[in-house]
Design brief:
Largest interface: A-B, 55 and 68 residues
Low-confidence stretches of chain A: 1-10
Helix content of chain A: 40-55%
Distance between the termini of chain A: 74 Å
Shape of chain B: elongated
Strand order of the largest sheet of chain B: 2-1-5-3-4
Mean pLDDT of chain B: 95
Oligomer: heterodimer
Structural class of chain B: alpha+beta
Number of domains of chain A: 1
Largest sheet of chain A: 2 strands, antiparallel
Number of helices of chain B: 10
Strand content of chain A: under 5%
Distance between the termini of chain B: 66 Å
Number of strands of chain B: 7
Number of helices of chain A: 8
Helix content of chain B: 25-40%
Low-confidence stretches of chain B: none
CATH superfamily of the largest domain in chain B: Alpha-helical ferredoxin
Order of helices and strands of chain A: HEEHHHEEHHHH
Chain lengths: 248, 243
């Protein structure tokens, strides 16, 4: 016979009866997100090597150069995608778990007892839809950059960088348009599709967005890696560390 | 047949202890089978709530190896072998005896939800209107989502938070094509929707695989944002006179 405490007394951080590797996913999330934030900050402050031939780094797109702005032009842009990701329903889950440990994993004791959820200061999470609007505008410029990346000295062509930017923008589009707020916007706010104006169209749109929304986490991670890879590729080509492979 | 040791919580609201029971296992066994064996041969006074043994009544909720689960749906071959299997009652609710909890708080919460009120025009309802709502009707009220939700489990905010099960019910009512009750104020102020930080544990444990967070809680949060946190929508409504 083994004596144990009553279930109600399980309150310390990490206290659990789970026998699986419950710590693995949040630990990986901390590692990857921290790496991404450090990389993006370094690149934003670097303020260099963001153009290579027809390629423009997504961290600097659209390129806004003003005399009155003393810092890197990346900061005029990055607030939009950063705010979009920070208030994203998927990333909220990821960082509430990984950084705040609220909870670190399901059915695992938490470190602090005070908890307000998404009330008070965290009401700002309701701004997610406005960051979505801004992210759609940025996305428009990223597609413009992809089209430009097919132009080499006025001639149609394709380099490996074109593919990198294309894949990045496709993944960012998937991430943006699988957003829960977008899903709500196109039809989620309708109660009666058969009675609403353009209800059938909105129902089809809602169904379509719902199908990609199911994979929002996948879009979130793949687009995060893609945007970092695209920026890194442009940087390496721009500083001469590698040469762009011209496909045709 | 090899034996597996089950560490089963025995006790009541004052406390208790896990007691080891060796149980012979057979192919296809679920945790509830093992508890029936314990009741039948080793501890006839073991209290276990169960009914259908088909994952449809939601009675046999417990924590198996620390994870909230239906005991009738948890196969032994899905658990790690060679180690004892722990079976505890749901942590969020007061224990009555052994594995049986008092879940009556949930029924009190349910009574506070503004009920369905049909439109008077007798609308015809089409399939596309009820597609979303049908998912929510799958809920079997096992309360595993309530058990795993850290707002209730760790922070004990039962007085101010309805919990995922009732957000599912609220979503079903709010999205009902024929319902005319406005629950915006209730959602924002009384249900404690803002306390949910969408960490999806409820979705992970739902035996009916209802997408609680994505399809119920987040759409409700978006509706609250529509009503209380969207100045553009407010201006649009003022100009065009629409809700």
């Amino acid at each position: 016979m083994e004596k144990t405490v009553a279930p109600a007394a399980m309150v310390k951080f990490g206290t659990t009866q789970r026998k699986d590797a419950w710590w693995a996913a949040p630990t990986a999330t901390v590692a990857v997100l921290t790496l991404f934030v450090i990389y993006s900050m370094v690149r934003a402050f670097e303020n260099n090597y963001y153009i290579a031939g027809p390629y423009l780094s997504p961290f600097y797109s659209p390129l806004l150069l003003f005399d009155w702005w003393p810092l890197s032009p990346a900061f005029l842009i990055l607030w939009a995608p950063a705010g979009f990701r920070f208030t994203c329903y998927y990333y909220r889950k990821a960082y509430y778990r990984a950084y705040a440990a609220h909870p670190f994993a399901c059915a695992v004791g938490e470190p602090h007892r005070d908890y307000q959820g998404e009330t008070k200061l965290f009401l700002f999470q309701n701004l997610h839809r406005f960051f979505l609007y801004a992210a759609v505008v940025v996305l428009f410029f990223l597609w413009h950059d992809v089209i430009k990346a097919f132009s080499f000295g006025g001639h149609f062509g394709m380099g490996f960088g074109t593919l990198v930017l294309l894949v990045n923008t496709v993944l960012l589009s998937g991430y943006t348009f699988s957003c829960h707020s977008f899903r709500h916007f196109v039809g989620g706010n309708v109660d009666c599709f058969s009675c609403a104006k353009a209800g059938r169209v909105r129902f089809k749109l809602w169904k379509g967005v719902s199908s990609i929304n199911e994979h929002h986490m996948l879009w979130a991670w793949t687009s995060l890696f893609a945007v970092m890879a695209a920026d890194l590729y442009v940087r390496l080509v721009a500083c001469g560390a590698i040469h762009d492979l011209r496909i045709f | 047949m090899p034996d597996v040791t089950f560490k089963v919580f025995r006790g009541d609201a004052k406390g208790g202890q896990a007691i080891d029971y060796p149980v012979p296992i057979a192919p296809g066994m679920v945790v509830l089978d093992a508890l029936h064996y314990i009741q039948g041969y080793l501890a006839p006074d073991l209290a276990v709530r169960w009914n259908c043994k088909a994952a449809k009544c939601g009675s046999c909720s417990a924590e198996v190896n620390g994870k909230p689960a239906l005991m009738c749906k948890t196969r032994l071959d899905s658990l790690p072998t060679g180690r004892p299997i722990t079976v505890y009652p749901m942590k969020t609710f007061p224990v009555i005896k052994d594995l049986v909890c008092d879940v009556s708080w949930n029924y009190d919460v349910n009574k506070k939800i503004p009920p369905y009120r049909p439109a008077k025009d007798g609308r015809k309802i089409y399939q596309e209107d009820v597609d979303r709502v049908q998912e929510f009707r799958k809920c079997i009220e096992c309360f595993l989502c309530q058990d795993v939700c850290h707002v209730l489990r760790e922070h004990e905010k039962k007085a101010e938070f309805a919990g995922p099960r009732f957000f599912v019910r609220l979503a079903g009512l709010e999205m009902h094509p024929n319902d005319i009750t406005d629950r915006s104020e209730f959602l924002k102020n009384s249900s404690g929707l803002g306390l949910c930080n969408i960490t999806k544990c409820c979705t992970e444990v739902c035996p009916e695989e209802i997408h609680i967070t994505d399809n119920a809680i987040i759409p409700l949060k978006e509706r609250v944002a529509d009503r209380f946190f969207d100045p553009l929508r407010w201006v649009f409504a003022k100009i065009f006179g629409r809700k």
